[in-house]
């Protein structure tokens, strides 16, 4: 019984350690997904580049690399990170989010909204 315990106990500890590391990797991946999406939303709203990076880095794991790009009417945010507790392992997490760029709002008091409202009222009668 003692010999069996001596063999099984290290295996159980190794298995538990692997489970904890797996959970850390999954948590970091979820943070990368959330960071990429938050950055893509900010970029789609056409926020300032510094604001986009600030929003993305606030959600991303510590030390993550953030890349923001624009391709036509789409913005792309890429977050690359290494899990914080696993710097010694060759694990690199990468997530990317794409969003359609929104058009800036028209200035308040413009005639566009009034003309549209007039057309809608005319049709309702």
Automatic annotation (TrEMBL):
Keyword Thylakoid: no
Segments of this protein annotated with the region Disordered: 102-125
Segments crossing the lipid bilayer: 6-27
Keyword Transmembrane helix in record: yes
Family matches, as NCBIfam families: TadE_Rv3655c
UniProt name for this protein: TadE-like domain-containing protein
Domain TadE-like: 2-41
Compositional bias annotation for Low complexity: 102-118
InterPro entries found in the cross-reference section: Rv3655c/TadE, TadE-like_dom
Species of the source: Streptomyces asoensis
Key words, A-Z: Membrane, Transmembrane, Transmembrane helix
Name of one Pfam family that matches: TadE
């Amino acid at each position: 019984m003692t010999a069996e315990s001596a063999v099984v106990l290290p295996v159980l500890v190794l298995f538990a350690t692997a489970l904890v590391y797996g959970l850390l990797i999954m948590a970091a991946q979820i943070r990368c997904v959330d960071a990429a999406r938050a950055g893509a939303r900010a970029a789609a709203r056409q926020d300032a580049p510094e604001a986009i990076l600030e929003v993305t880095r606030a959600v991303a794991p510590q030390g993550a690399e953030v890349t923001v790009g624009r391709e036509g009417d789409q913005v792309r945010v890429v977050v690359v990170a290494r899990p914080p507790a696993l710097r010694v392992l060759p694990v690199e997490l990468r997530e990317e989010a794409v969003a359609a760029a929104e058009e800036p709002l028209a200035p308040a008091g413009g005639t566009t909204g009034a003309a549209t409202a007039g057309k809608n009222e005319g049709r309702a009668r």
